[in-house]
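Predict structure. Chain length: 302.
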Amino acid sequence: MRLIFAGTPEVASDALERIADKHEVTLVLTRPDAPIGRKRIMTPSRVASMAEKLGLRVHKTSKIDEEALKLIRESDAEKAVVVAYGAMIPEAALSMIPWWNLHFSVLPEWRGATPLQHSMIHDTGIGITVFELNSGLDTGPLITQQHLSFLENETAGEALKRFTEEGSKLLIHALEENPESTIQEGTASLAPKISRLDAKIDFETDAADLMRFIRATNPEPMAWANQNGEPVRILFASATTFNPDSLKLREVGEIYKSDDSEIIVQCGNRTSLKLQLVQPAGKREAAATDWWNGLKGTAKFD
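Prediction complete.
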């Protein structure tokens, strides 16, 4: 089948490689080169690099403008496939050919920019969906879906790569089978972008919920909390099955070393979170025990 592929980040480049192995990709749409690293070197997207490697025609654009529409018409494609493109597809393009989008939740749960992260935080709607784009926010007809689950201690970044692999297989199968679409049914929920402010940890929350929240915000924007007025990123943590220091009454947010030499934070509902990997402001990531040894006196997250 002749296809247009629209995508930008590394996970989309993986999908492009798999799809191009099975179908003729006549045009690749991706975001323009962007400054990367401390030296702000202009760097092509991972999809652009993959397309060049595969010898595919690439158009770099942050929006589907008249030039892009002309290229879409000239591509003679039968369908378009979208994987994390990062730009809206206007009605003018949607009216030309069907646009199938790979979405990282089981729709209609978690419509929006961060579906996988929200499904991890809330432990519901976990999986992938291929659906046809329309003018609404992830409201188009369903092509196919697959329920998945997260691995133990898997971060959102790790899960996204694995879900993309499964999604590429699902897309390829759907392109071959061309199943009849169905309307979305059930209660819809929204998954807006998670800002740095949103990623601040509220230790009044149950530790099990915080553990999922910390994994869901890794690698972006990364969960954090203030300790003595300075931000500390919490890169990895786990909920303890019991309070190892349950005989002592502690304040929510209090940090202490347990009898087992584990670094614990008191959380809501008398639950406890075990810190494993942290990154203080302006410093490299460190084991929680090493970070704790550098603290003085009673420690508490603000």
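Summary: The chain has two domains: 2-191, 207-300.
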